[in-house]
Amino acid sequence: MVSAYEEVCIWEKTEAVQTLQKCGLGKGMIAMDLGCGLAHYTIPAAITVGSEGKVIAVDHDKKINKTTYNRLMDAGITNVEIVCANHLELNHIPDSSVDFLMIYDMIHTNPRIEVYPVIKRLLKKGGI
């Protein structure tokens, strides 16, 4: 019998990858998972963009970031940069540098008036 955790790990490497591809994420792209939590979308994004691409996983919680790092290492994923910051602390990331930005599970917990300008600044023209 497969545990719930194992089931999620399988989903991350199969259905979630297919869903992100359908949403427009592809090989070689730069993706950001803003509010990445435990990397449930970071991992499929990293698989989708491949070794030519990169995922920037952002979360303000150091403990969660450590767990994310361990999950990435266990999965053999090396194309993810983990950033310990909140949405207002991303000034070191260049303007118009992200092709695909995910804000699942964080948009409802932060003021949109703060988040939307950050998204607009980071996304490339025509970014998703």
Automatic annotation (TrEMBL):
GO biological process, any: methylation
Key words, A-Z: Methyltransferase, Transferase
Entry GO MF terms: methyltransferase activity
Keyword Translocase: no
First and last residue of the signal peptide: none
Enzyme Commission number: 2.1.-.-
Pfam families in alphabetical order: Ubie_methyltran
InterPro entries given in the database record: SAM-dependent_MTases_sf
Catalytic class of the enzyme: transferase
Gene3D superfamilies noted in UniProt: Vaccinia Virus protein VP39 (3.40.50.150)
Protein name per Swiss-Prot or TrEMBL: Class I SAM-dependent methyltransferase
